[in-house]
Amino acid sequence: MPGKLIKDIKKYKYVYLMLIPVLAYYIIFCYVPMGGLIMAFKDYAPRKGIFGSDWVGFKYFLDFFKDMYFVRLMRNTFMLNVYDIIIGFPAPIILALLLNEITGKKFKNTVQTMLYMPNFVSLVVLCGIVVDFCATEGVINDILAFIGFEPNNLLQNPWLFKPIFVITNLWQYAGWNSIIYMASIIGINEELYDAAYVDGCGRMKRLIHVTLPGLVPTIVIMFILRLGNIMTVGFEKVILLYNPLTYETADVISSYVYRRGILEANYSYAAAVGLFNSLINFAFLVLANWLSKKATDESLW
């Protein structure tokens, strides 16, 4: 086996050279920092360092479980991801299928460019636009006032936070995420389409019986990976959009950890909550992979 690997490296040396920066990135920024997880089990003091700080065991884990906001944080984080999966996961697939049906090359390129561009908008700029649009004197309220509704700041309504968060995510990432499905469609054997056409299948039947089955492996893998982040919500967008009036529905684990762990310099608490969150995500990933393997024979491992 080692001899075969060495031979393979010599044969494809430039491919392996291209792999080095990727490996270096994950080793330096993903695996090396994992040593800091020990901080979750210590009463970390910067002057003592991680290894010099006193052991406290599971103290910070228990503090989080007993926290009065624990249930709210878990519920908000989980439900925000569920809504995002229900609405946001199918959107790139649908976009890819629609784009694949466009025959005009120039029009197709124009549409693709328009769909991909929101991904490159800065998150701060995006949230600024959302805040302005949802303000009492914003565009959305102008439209609502025109049809007879009373203007109000939409971001101060706790029950509107999740829809606003999910819809803006959809606008920003759906087009970009459709790229991987477009690549999968391009990789489908053209002979299958020709055979379906000869058998009398129209465009819709070719989509149902050829394109969608060809996309299934990619869809399954992407869905498993998405479930592996079921308890992850980036705190940046949340803290840019939420306020004390919407904490009840908007406050998630990452934003709470940012306030308690970072702003209050309680680093051990932040590490403990982050580790707990990662373990839940890992459990969902393993479960989703197992169920997928049983149901479709497609899995990550």
UniProtKB/TrEMBL annotation:
Q: Name one Pfam family in it.
A: BPD_transp_1
UniProt cross-references to SUPFAM superfamilies, sorted A to Z: MetI-like
The ABC transmembrane type-1 domain is annotated at 74-288
Query: Keywords assigned by UniProt?
Result: Cell membrane, Membrane, Transmembrane, Transmembrane helix, Transport
State which residue ranges cross the membrane.
14-41, 78-99, 120-140, 160-186, 207-225, 267-291
Entry membrane topology? Multi-pass membrane protein
Please give the InterPro entries that the UniProt record associates with this protein. MetI-like, MetI-like_sf, UgpAE/MalFG_permease
**Location relative to the cell:** Cell membrane
PANTHER family membership: BLL4140 PROTEIN
According to its UniProt record, which protein family does this protein belong to?
Belongs to the binding-protein-dependent transport system permease family.
Q: What's the protein here called?
A: Sugar ABC transporter permease
Source organism of the structure: Eisenbergiella tayi
